[in-house]
Amino acid sequence: MEYSAGNVSNLFWFVETKETVRLLSDLSMDEIAGKVTSENLFQQKDMKRAKRQFNVIRKRLESLPDELSAMIATADIRTSKLIVFIGCMATDRLLFELIYEVYRDKLHMGGTHISDADLNIFFKNKQDQSEKVAGMSDNSIKKLKQTYCKYMFEAGLLAGKIAEKNVVRPYIEPELKDALKKNAMDKYLAALSGLLM
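RESULT FIELD:
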């Protein structure tokens, strides 16, 4: 998967993702796409934005094994949000690597917060390793940092004030652990739990 700054304008969209999963029990993705525009399912002012939002949600859901995406509708809210976050990571290499290299390390080493310096070092390293990331504007990187931190707050991985970014170790239900292992997604489990691989 290529590095991309595409998520600068995307939100976490938990409620919309859960609604999409709920509708999948009766409708196909294409039928839901039709409802998004014909019924303004996600209540967007702009239909172009609604279509783009749905396409991002669709991509995230399609990146997950069926077992995991189905759990979004049935699991408790905390677990559902973690699965939506896994979908975000599965479609965004930079986000996955941030969680795997920075957040996981904080959990493993007992770090209490993610600092601006942690984020700056991570992005500087990625710029040194990848021409694609090196070509991203300073503004895009600034927005990505904000977007990724918002995702982490919404998924329950960070708490406190935005400036503090206090690290929270999520409780990962045994059912979710098993599903990740069964579907060869051990790296995602390690990223979210601080386990070494």
